[in-house]
């Protein structure tokens, strides 16, 4: 194509895996004439968002009212990602998940990185194979990751080192590529993010290092629905505060494994429909039940919600899930997954940048956009 003497060349592919984007980035970096190269579809989205970093001549976006699957909108390119601010030194952070379209991480992390004058960009990464992903994207350009559903437990094996808290939980939601040796270090910011949100909702108290000597969770029955990565983080956090855990999961063996780790009790998810909690118990949903677009489902029996003092939902799309609406109507204190999302993101920013997160700015972003 270069030999034709064209002023600009363009290559568009259909991606079956996000790791194919590495070839596109190589092409852009080594092409001798201005080039446009990207892959369509959700797995190829990073090729469009990161095009300027690797020397691409143009970035494509869809116009308002004419969205195209897998193609970013012009508004997001200009406002959320501000791709024109990118250069070859821009550090790449992203959400490793499947799917990723629901994530609001870019709406929070990108403005915060710019506010802090940190040369970085945060992008969604639709990953099918963790091993292939980490093998291919091994350069210092890819500096850190958030880890979402369904990989928080599985990703532990791909970390070179795991922080003690994340190791005790058995789940990682944040990975940093350590400067110098390039090793992947796994952390968990979900645990304190969720538990402090619940504690703060139960009483107005300042915490030292995320802990209170007399946690309002001490001695309470704490019901966790879901024994995956988020459920493990919540359960370990609740146990550290002295709560009594009951774990429900569709996979009873997985529930039993977590119950053993937190000295709790395991039950099958189906039995939750008939479960009668103690008055004043805490309920935490750590499953995708109620997430957009299936927003009409709740994980617990509606008639039991009045027994709970507080109901927490890790789902944050929508912000007010049906579970939270029904729980509020029944008289329970409610805590949105948005609060957990904000707090864990603050922890991630600290790890990503090595700087103190601008907490007030991040909260303003969440209140305005979520």
TrEMBL record:
Alphabetized InterPro entries for the sequence: Aldolase_TIM, Aminoacid_DH-like_N_sf, DHquinase_I, NAD(P)-bd_dom_sf, SDH_C, Shikimate_DH-bd_N, Shikimate_DH_fam
Single Gene Ontology MF annotation: shikimate 3-dehydrogenase (NADP+) activity
Pfam families according to UniProt: DHquinase_I (PF01487), SDH_C (PF18317), Shikimate_dh_N (PF08501)
Domain Shikimate dehydrogenase substrate binding N-terminal: 95-175
Domain SDH C-terminal residue range list: 337-367
Domain of life: Eukaryota
Biological processes annotated in GO: chorismate biosynthetic process; shikimate metabolic process
Protein name in the entry: DEHYDROQUINATE DEHYDRATASE/SHIKIMATE DEHYDROGENASE
UniProt source species: Salix koriyanagi
């Amino acid at each position: 194509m270069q030999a034709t003497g064209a002023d600009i060349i363009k290559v568009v592919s259909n991606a079956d895996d996000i790791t194919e984007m590495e070839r596109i980035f190589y092409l852009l970096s080594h092409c001798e004439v201005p080039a446009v190269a990207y892959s369509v579809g959700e797995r190829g989205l990073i090729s469009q968002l990161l095009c300027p970093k690797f020397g691409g001549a143009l970035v494509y976006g869809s116009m308002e009212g004419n969205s195209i699957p897998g193609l970013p909108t012009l508004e997001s390119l200009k406002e959320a990602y501000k791709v024109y601010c990118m250069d070859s030194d821009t550090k790449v952070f992203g959400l490793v998940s499947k799917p990723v379209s629901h994530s609001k991480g870019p709406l929070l992390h990108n403005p915060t990185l710019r506010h802090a004058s940190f040369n970085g960009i945060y992008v969604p990464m639709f990953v099918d194979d963790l091993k292939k992903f980490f093998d291919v994207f091994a350069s210092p350009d890819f500096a850190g990751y958030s880890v979402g559903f369904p990989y928080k437990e599985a990703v532990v094996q791909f970390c070179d080192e795991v922080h003690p808290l994340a190791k005790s939980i058995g789940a990682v939601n944040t990975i940093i590529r350590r400067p110098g040796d390039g090793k992947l270090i796994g952390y968990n910011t979900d645990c304190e993010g969720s538990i402090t949100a619940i504690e703060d909702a139960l009483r107005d108290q300042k915490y030292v290092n995320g802990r209170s000597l007399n946690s309002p969770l001490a001695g309470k029955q704490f019901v966790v629905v879901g024994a995956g990565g988020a459920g493990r983080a919540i359960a370990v956090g609740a146990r550290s505060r002295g709560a009594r855990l009951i774990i429900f999961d569709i996979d009873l063996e997985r529930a039993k494994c977590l119950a053993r780790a937190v000295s709790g009790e395991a039950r099958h998810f189906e039995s939750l429909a008939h479960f009668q909690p103690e008055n004043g118990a805490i309920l935490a949903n750590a499953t995708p039940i109620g997430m957009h677009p299936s927003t009409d489902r709740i994980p617990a029996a509606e008639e039991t919600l009045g027994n709970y003092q507080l109901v927490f939902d890790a789902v944050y799309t929508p912000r007010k899930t049906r579970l939270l609406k029904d729980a509020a109507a029944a008289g329970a204190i409610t805590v949105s997954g948005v609060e957990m999302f904000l707090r864990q993101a603050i922890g991630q920013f600290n790890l990503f940048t090595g700087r103190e997160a601008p907490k007030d700015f991040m909260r303003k972003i969440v209140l305005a956009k979520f």
